[in-house]
């Protein structure tokens, strides 16, 4: 890959990134502009919010703020939006929810104010609708009053039917914020046996959504849905994600997992959060929230198309070729699915990162430059590692106690003969161990050479 040029911005970001590394953070915080890095660092220092969770929440918040206002064009006819499905994984008490609330606070404030405004407009609408035609004429109001629309960014526990209806009123997009994301996928198909999971698979790909509502004269038709998802999940229930068809239809491959390896219980301290920190974050997000949107005569949003510079496109192409080379030698279909979905995500990351740099006044937003692609590569490699770790966690949790003991006792690098001996000590016969080893090569183990394996 190309050697990265030295810039003042790069030096600042590298210094900030090194500082983060000493805190045990794995998330590549240097993908963000220095202003956002400072916010992440300050809430860690003062509130003990884990850096990985705060950074991922901020990334998702920026994506939600972009909505359908901007799309990135990879090729003619191939555009991607900033839709992300993110899960913050950790044990109970790992302080996952607070960073998420901090990142989403600008949307909460916006939605609250819009709800107050909607209440006033709806009261006026009810008053006008109760008037006779003559009374409306005398009062100078519309002959046929229009029901007001509530503008919003956030939704929580909601059915696809209800979500489609709200989305139709908010074409720019919505964000599903589920504090316990397990409630999101556990509720799939709770009211029917058909389509909720398929609905979300379509949303991820921004395919048109058609919803036929009961007692409605017309269907809800959303030409380009935009609904990113974020929430928290405990490590011990990760296995629920792989139940049903979710592991075979690619659903789980679409989730970006944030799971720090080191999870220490937060310690209280006497450092106060700077007074301007929250307002600085709100100010940045307000710039996104207040972005002007153009609409056509049918009320459809007309997004701005962000292209890639020639240099950025070449670097992205180079990364994809390297990723494809890795896919060619993978023995695990599970990892293959993850690597393939990340080829979609890296394009979306380019858009989110470019827009975050624009928010902070570091660049324009009409074209993705090579610096944003470099940062997107860093972020993609991070999610590649966390996805592999989550898959291993799921695989291990589905093992018998005997198999778990064998995996735990195996050294990082072992021969077949050594594995047979360790398995025998746990009461597992040679043939059973060899079958277990063969079945899990590519998931729990990687074959280094003939007769030699490494634990993943």
Task: Outline the secondary-structure elements.
Layout: H1 8-21, H2 34-47, H3 51-66, E1 70-75, E2 78-80, E3 85-90, H4 97-129, H5 133-139, E4 154-155, H6 160-169, E5 175-180, H7 181-186, H8 196-204, E6 209-211, E7 220-222, E8 229-234, E9 255-258, H9 275-289, E10 294-295, E11 301-302, E12 304-308, H10 310-329, H11 333-359, E13 367-368, H12 370-397, H13 401-409, E14 413-415, H14 416-425, H15 430-440, E15 445-449, E16 452-455
Parallel strand pairs: 1-12, 3-8, 3-9, 4-5, 5-8, 12-13
Antiparallel strand pairs: 1-2, 6-7, 10-11, 14-16, 15-16
Helix pairs in contact: 1-2, 2-9, 3-4, 3-11, 4-9, 10-11, 10-12, 11-12
What does this structure look like?
It is built from 15 helices and 16 strands. A hairpin with an 8-residue loop joins strand 6 (209-211) and strand 7. Helix 4 (97-129) packs across helix 9 (275-289). The strands form five sheets. The chain has a five-stranded parallel beta sheet. A four-stranded mixed beta sheet has the order 2-1-12-13. A three-stranded antiparallel beta sheet has the order 14-16-15. The chain is elongated. Helices cover 50% and strands 14% of the residues. By secondary structure, it is α/β, with parallel strands linked by helices. The protein has helices spanning 8-21, 34-47, 51-66, 97-129, 133-139, 160-169, 181-186, 196-204, 275-289, 310-329, 333-359, 370-397, 401-409, 416-425, 430-440; strands at 70-75, 78-80, 85-90, 154-155, 175-180, 209-211, 220-222, 229-234, 255-258, 294-295, 301-302, 304-308, 367-368, 413-415, 445-449, 452-455. It folds into two domains: 23-398, Rossmann fold (3-Layer(aba) Sandwich); 401-455, Orthogonal Bundle (Arc Repressor Mutant, subunit A). The two termini are 26 Å apart. The model is unreliable at 1-6 and 15-22 (pLDDT under 50).
């Amino acid at each position: 890959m190309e050697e990265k040029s030295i810039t003042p911005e790069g030096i600042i970001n590298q210094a900030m990134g090194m500082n983060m590394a000493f805190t045990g953070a794995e998330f590549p915080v240097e993908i963000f502009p220095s202003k956002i890095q400072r916010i992440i660092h300050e809430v860690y220092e003062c509130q003990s919010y884990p850096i990985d969770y705060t950074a991922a929440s901020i990334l998702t918040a920026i994506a939600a703020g972009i909505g359908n206002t901007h799309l990135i064009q990879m090729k003619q006819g191939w555009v991607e939006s900033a839709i992300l499905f993110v899960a913050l994984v950790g044990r109970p008490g790992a302080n996952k929810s607070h960073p998420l609330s901090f990142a989403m606070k600008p949307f909460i404030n916006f939605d609250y104010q819009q709800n107050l405004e909607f209440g006033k407009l709806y009261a006026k609408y009810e008053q006008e609708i109760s008037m006779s035609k003559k009374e409306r004429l005398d009062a100078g109001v519309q002959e046929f009053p229009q029901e007001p629309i509530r503008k919003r960014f956030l939704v929580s526990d909601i059915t696809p039917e209800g979500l489609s209806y709200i989305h139709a009123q908010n074409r720019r997009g919505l964000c599903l914020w589920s504090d316990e994301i397990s409630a999101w996928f556990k509720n799939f198909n709770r009211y029917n046996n058909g389509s909720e999971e398929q609905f979300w698979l379509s949303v991820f790909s921004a395919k048109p959504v058609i919803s036929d509502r009961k007692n409605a004269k017309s269907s809800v038709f959303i030409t380009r849905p935009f609904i990113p998802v974020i929430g928290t999940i405990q490590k011990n229930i990760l296995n629920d994600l792989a139940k049903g068809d979710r592991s075979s239809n690619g659903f789980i491959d679409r989730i970006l997992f944030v799971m720090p390896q080191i999870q220490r219980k937060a310690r209280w301290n006497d450092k106060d959060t700077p007074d301007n920190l929250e307002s600085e974050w709100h100010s940045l997000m307000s710039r996104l929230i207040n972005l002007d949107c153009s609409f056509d005569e049918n009320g459809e949003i007309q997004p701005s198309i962000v292209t890639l510079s020639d240099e950025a496109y070449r670097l992205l192409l180079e990364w994809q070729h390297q990723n494809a080379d890795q896919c060619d030698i993978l023995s695990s279909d599970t990892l293959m699915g993850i690597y393939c979905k990340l080829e979609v995500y890296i394009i979306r990351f380019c858009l989110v990162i470019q827009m975050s740099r624009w928010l902070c006044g570091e660049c324009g937003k009409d074209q993705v430059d090579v610096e944003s692609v470099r940062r997107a590569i860093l972020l993609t490699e991070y999610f590649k590692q966390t996805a592999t770790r989550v898959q291993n966690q799921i695989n291990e949790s589905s093992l018998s106690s005997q198999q778990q003991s064998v995996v735990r006792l195996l050294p990082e690098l072992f021969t077949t003969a050594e594995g047979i001996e360790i398995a025998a000590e746990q009461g597992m016969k040679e043939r059973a161990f060899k079958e277990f080893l063969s079945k899990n090569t590519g998931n729990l183990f990687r074959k280094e050479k003939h007769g030699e394996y490494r634990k993943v």
